[in-house]
């Protein structure tokens, strides 16, 4: 994986090949867990980084739940390599991994991602068939059991923010729900999207403030400051509903309501005029700056157990 | 493969809540087939929307008629996609060699 090109976009097959190679190179640190299969039968692969112990407190990171946000899956690949490179070298990451496990799902919506390569580069949703509709797919960030179906999602199967027939209807979502519930010791949950340079925390479906809002806000501020220190990329932070708009059925609202205090959504670059079509030359700088934000949250999680 | 020739991405700068509401009216018109890359938000962040060629004229007239400022963020989506694909292909053939 030293010769893998992190400054290019890759296909699903190339990313899965990278995952297997990284596991083979680091048998004492990295393993691959399949938490289920997508609607079209593709494996839902999660990388587990662990230095021992069983059922340790853990941190979850996912990228690519919206398939067209290619810079996120590409950043996820870079994060995976960064973890294996830095363990034993970087003091902060080593301390984190000596006590916590890290789970990283790089291609959280493989059917959608494959479709962006084969048919429609701007596809966002899953590829499930909605009975009775000619439109395909559900927005996997509106399908969680947190304010499901409330304002901030669409009941129209043709909409980009269609919430699906019922909460967890999408197997890509249900598989994570089941994994989190069965693991039972996830302490931080970070879901990575693009674009618009935001670091968001619950809630999106209600104006009610999260019980830990001051702490989440202070940690978001520290993470954004760290992130911006590298290339000056300007981020805003705050709760989903006060910062952007009402969004119901969202990932981190469910994880927070499930007791995972440090629940965050990143919206990575584009700082310019490319939107989802961010040039590949920006992958590595985007991943590098985001990593500084992630390390801040993971380090805080380690030092503030609950 | 879906072809996005002629599709443009407009960057809309709403000046106030009333103008955000105007943009939200557009969002409801399904026949325009608009794809909001960044939807109307609290912070008056720019609103980015991909507009198919067939809807371009009517969307621009609507925005101008309502005094809503916009710029063309991406002139032709397909050109950018072609570039991205070329770059991926070039990388892949280098990797193979």
Can you summarize the main beta sheet of chain A? 8 strands, mixed
What percentage of amino acids of chain B are in beta strands?
15-25%
Question: How is the main sheet of chain B built?
Answer: 4 strands, antiparallel
Seen as an oligomer or otherwise, the chain set is heterodimer
The helix/strand class of chain B is alpha+beta
Query: Total number of β-strand segments of chain B?
Result: 4
Strand order of the largest sheet of chain A: 1-2-4-3-5-8-6-7
Shape of chain B: elongated
Q: Which range best describes the helical content of chain A: under 10%, 10-25%, 25-40%, 40-55%, 55-70% or over 70%?
A: 25-40%
Structural class of chain A: alpha/beta
Number of helices of chain B: 3
Percent range for helical residues of chain B?
40-55%
Q: Mean pLDDT across all residues of chain B, rounded?
A: 92
Order of helices and strands of chain A: HEEEHHEHHEEHEHHEH
Separate helix tally of chain A: 9
Segments of chain A where pLDDT lies below 50 for 5+ residues?
A: none
Query: In terms of per-residue confidence, which ranges of chain B show pLDDT below 50 for 5 or more consecutive residues?
Result: none
Structure description:
Chain A has 306 residues and is of the alpha/beta class. Chain A is built from 9 helices and 8 strands. In chain A, 37% of the residues lie in helices and 16% in strands. An 8-stranded mixed beta sheet of chain A has the order 1-2-4-3-5-8-6-7, sandwiched between helices. In chain A, a hairpin with a 5-residue loop joins β1 (30-37) and β2. The radius of gyration of chain A is 18 Å and the shape is globular. Chain A starts with 11 loop residues before the first helix and ends with a helix. The mean pLDDT of chain A is 97. With 97 residues, chain B is an alpha+beta fold. Chain B has a 4-stranded antiparallel beta sheet. Chain B is elongated. Chain A binds chain B through residues 5, 8-9, 118-122, 156, 158, 160, 195-196, 236, 241-245, 273-277, 279-280, and chain B through 1-2, 4, 9, 11, 30, 35-43, 45, 48, 50, 73-74, 77, 80-81, 84, 87-88, 91, 95.
């Amino acid at each position: 994986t030293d010769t893998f090109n992190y400054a290019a976009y890759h296909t699903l097959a190339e990313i899965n090949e990278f995952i297997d190679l990284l596991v083979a190179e680091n048998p004492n640190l990295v393993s691959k867990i399949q938490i289920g299969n997508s609607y079209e039968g593709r494996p839902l692969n999660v990388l587990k980084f662990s230095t021992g112990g069983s059922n340790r407190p853990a941190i979850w990171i996912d990228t690519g739940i919206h398939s067209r946000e290619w810079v996120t899956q590409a950043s996820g690949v870079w994060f995976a390599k960064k973890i294996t490179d830095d363990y034993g070298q970087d003091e902060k990451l080593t301390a984190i991994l000596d006590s916590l496990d890290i789970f990283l799902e790089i291609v959280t919506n493989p059917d959608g991602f494959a479709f962006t390569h084969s048919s429609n580069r701007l596809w966002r949703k899953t590829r499930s068939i909605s009975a009775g509709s000619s439109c395909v797919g559900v927005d996997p960030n509106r399908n969680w059991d947190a304010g499901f179906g409330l304002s901030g999602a669409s009941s129209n199967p043709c909409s980009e923010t269609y919430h699906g027939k019922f909460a967890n209807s999408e197997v890509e979502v249900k598989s994570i729900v089941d994994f989190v519930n069965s693991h039972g010791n996830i302490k931080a949950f970070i879901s990575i999207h693009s674009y618009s340079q935001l670091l968001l925390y619950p809630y999106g479906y209600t104006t009610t403030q999260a019980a830990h809002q001051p702490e989440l806000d202070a940690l978001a501020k520290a993470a954004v400051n760290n992130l911006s220190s590298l290339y000056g990329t300007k981020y805003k932070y705050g709760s989903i509903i006060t910062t952007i708009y009402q969004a119901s059925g969202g990932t981190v609202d469910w994880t927070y309501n499930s007791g995972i205090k440090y629940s965050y959504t990143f919206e990575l670059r584009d700082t310019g005029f490319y939107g989802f079509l961010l040039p590949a030359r920006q992958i590595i700088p985007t991943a590098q700056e985001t990593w500084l934000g992630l390390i801040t949250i993971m380090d805080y999680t380690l030092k503030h157990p609950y | 493969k879906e072809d996005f020739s002629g599709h443009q991405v407009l960057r809309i700068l709403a000046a106030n809540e009333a103008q955000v509401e105007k943009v939200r009216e557009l969002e409801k018109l399904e026949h325009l087939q608009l794809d909001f890359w960044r939807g109307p938000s609290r912070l008056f962040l720019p609103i980015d929307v991909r507009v198919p060629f067939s809807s371009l004229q009517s969307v621009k007239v609507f925005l101008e008629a309502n005094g809503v400022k916009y710029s063309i963020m991406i002139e032709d989506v397909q050109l950018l996609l072609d570039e991205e694909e070329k770059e991926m292909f070039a990388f892949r053939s280098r990797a193979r060699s």
